[in-house]
């Protein structure tokens, strides 16, 4: 998600250390201490302006959430929502989603959300897709055994690629939706992009994919 540069965004993040983790490397393997409980931890990679992750945190106080976003202006908009909602079970990381093993220990995360990721449609850019094998290897490392990725997109090409990528990696496709908003799925929390595209009548694709349990 690209937005205009927001003056003072970096200073906004620095001013709220209770929500924005300045030293995520120091919390690797210790996120339960950061949250002050042993609740499951779920993360969204590329959270954009934060509508989804703040909505999830508000709806599920029994789960801890971490939003990951690279763009400082974008994460500052997510911080606005978090400050307004005062959610103790949500933390924000201004880091690169390809380097998650620097911030999370093996099996520390329970679930990952990928919502409306950049499709990187050109073949030469395949490795940049968040559902490509190189990213899945990182995700599998930080996820608990048999952990899941929940993925939503409006891009049919990326969705088809992702289904294939998950399957080739040995993951199990738990459920697949080819038009989420015309299904009986309950509890859906929309992202900003999802609201925009669904209003135009575009189908929203969703899949829940599970990694194999290599401990068995």
UniProtKB/TrEMBL annotation:
Residues given in the record as substrate binding sites: 122, 154, 191-194
Pathway the protein acts in: tRNA modification; N(7)-methylguanine-tRNA biosynthesis
Gene3D superfamilies: Vaccinia Virus protein VP39
GO cellular component, one term: tRNA methyltransferase complex
Interaction with RNA, as annotated region: 124-129
SUPFAM superfamilies: S-adenosyl-L-methionine-dependent methyltransferases
Catalytic activity: guanosine(46) in tRNA + S-adenosyl-L-methionine = N(7)-methylguanosine(46) in tRNA + S-adenosyl-L-homocysteine
Alphabetized UniProt keyword annotations: Methyltransferase, S-adenosyl-L-methionine, Transferase, tRNA processing
First-level EC class: transferase
Entry's EC annotation: 2.1.1.33
Superkingdom in the source lineage: Bacteria
Binding site for S-adenosyl-L-methionine: 44, 69, 96, 118
Transmembrane residue ranges: none
GO MF terms held by the record: tRNA (guanine(46)-N7)-methyltransferase activity
NCBIfam families cross-referenced by the UniProt entry: PRK00121.2-2 (NF001080), tRNA (guanosine(46)-N7)-methyltransferase TrmB (TIGR00091)
HAMAP family per UniProt: tRNA_methyltr_TrmB
Family (UniProt): Belongs to the class I-like SAM-binding methyltransferase superfamily. TrmB family.
Reported function: Catalyzes the formation of N(7)-methylguanine at position 46 (m7G46) in tRNA.
Protein's name according to its UniProt entry: tRNA (guanine-N(7)-)-methyltransferase
Organism from which the protein derives: Enterococcus devriesei
Organism classification: Bacteria, Bacillati, Bacillota, Bacilli, Lactobacillales
This protein's encoding gene: trmB
